[in-house]
Specification:
The protein is α/β, with parallel strands linked by helices. The chain is built from 13 helices and ten strands. It has a five-stranded mixed sheet with strand order 2-1-3-5-4. The chain has a five-stranded mixed sheet with strand order 6-7-8-10-9. Helix 2 links the parallel strand 1 (about 35-40) and strand 2. The protein is elongated, with a radius of gyration of 25 Å. The protein starts with 11 loop residues before the first helix and ends with a helix. The model is unreliable at about 1-10 and about 15-30 (pLDDT under 50).
């Protein structure tokens, strides 16, 4: 099965329809001129993703994917990923298995903070990623949004692939629970069954290719159409924070949006002190939420909880204890609460600051 992906619209649904509609297109209908080489045998997420990204580029969109470990076969390929024992971008050779290889995004370009060892997917992303994103999003390659998108996609998609392929755990010590639904684990389960007497390895590879490609496009489109536009909303809320409360530790978002990561980045850029403790926003019903800010993006620990005595209380009981009309709830873990009005939600945040001596 050889196929290429058509250029994708900004609609997530349209993007995925476009991706899937080309699967299985007969080779006879395509003019194959380039060859992308990778290894045969058991496949992994990194080379599947590397092949997918390359085929988003005009020069490789009709390329044949050649799966072999025969060096003479690989030598005939225009670009080779995850096999061959060579990393040489000038020759389009992108393997990471050789003993001498220790590159990360940071080692290849010190302006990037990521120090996770790269897989073949990370290598392809480092060298071609901005062009790949431009093709998927139908942007010019000099579009000003691409640098931030490039970094965000590495942080929220690519780095996991790199780490998993290189055996780098996300946690130190023994994990508290087993995670079996990562993209890499799902790709692994698409390999031929060990007891299949007549496996179709190529069919399995391209099934993984479809899945990985769909997820990559979905993530890229989400960050461009939903995450990126939210930055202006968060920035405006930070700039006006002292109008909300004199402490500067409460922000009000003019609409619910993906806000946390933007807040961390804006705080760092502005060297914000003190940092923000609570965010207020209206839910779709017009009621208000007061939400704590976690210590960092992947933490369940809050910078400051809601008032501890409110834990798990609701409605009149909560309003009576707090003295704040219109209370709806406070979560047992004190990270979010609700009130029928903006004034009530703000007072919940203010009282929580006061309880902590703020």
């Amino acid at each position: 099965m050889f196929f290429s992906s058509s250029r994708l619209s900004l609609s997530r649904a349209a993007a995925l329809r476009s991706l899937m509609s080309c699967a299985g297109e007969p080779l006879a209908k395509r003019a194959v001129s380039m060859k992308i080489g990778t290894h045969n045998g058991k496949f992994h997420c990194d080379e599947v993703l590397a092949c997918y990204m390359l085929r988003q580029l005009p020069e490789y969109q009709d390329a044949e994917i050649v799966r072999s470990r025969d060096q003479s076969v690989l030598d005939e390929c225009d670009i080779v990923v995850d096999v061959g024992g060579v990393f040489d971008a000038s020759k389009h050779r992108y393997d990471h298995h050789q003993k001498s290889f220790a590159h990360s995004m940071n080692s290849l370009d010190s302006s990037y903070r990521f120090v996770t060892k790269l897989s073949s997917a990370g290598l392809v992303y480092f060298h071609f990623g901005k062009r790949v994103l431009a093709q998927i999003l139908k942007l010019r390659e000099d579009d000003p949004s691409l640098p931030s998108m490039y970094t965000k996609i590495y942080e929220n998609f690519m780095e996991e692939v790199d780490a998993c392929d290189n055996g780098i755990s996300a946690v130190d010590g023994v994990p508290r629970h087993h995670v079996s639904t990562t993209l890499g684990s799902r790709v692994g389960r698409l390999n031929p069954d060990w007891n299949d007497s007549n496996p179709d390895e190529t069919k399995c590879f391209f099934k993984a290719y479809d899945m990985v490609g769909a997820e990559f496009v979905d993530r890229v489109t989400y960050f461009f159409t939903q995450w990126l536009p939210a930055r202006d909303i968060v920035l405006a809320s930070v700039q006006s924070r002292h109008q909300v409360h004199s402490s500067g530790e409460i922000i009000v978002l003019d609409r619910s949006c993906p806000w946390k990561q933007h807040l961390y980045e804006i705080e760092e850029e502005m060297s914000l002190e003190p940092n923000v403790k609570f965010a207020l926003y209206a839910d779709p019903k017009g009621q208000w939420r007061v939400q704590t800010v976690s210590v960092h993006a992947n933490s369940f620990e809050n910078r400051l909880p809601l008032k501890p005595s409110w834990s798990a209380l609701r409605d009149d009981e909560l309003s009576t204890l707090s003295g704040i009309p219109g209370c709806i709830f406070v979560h047992a873990n004190l990270f979010i609460g609700g009130n029928k009005t903006y004034a009530g939600a703000l007072e919940m945040a203010v009282q929580s600051l006061a309880a902590a001596g703020k």
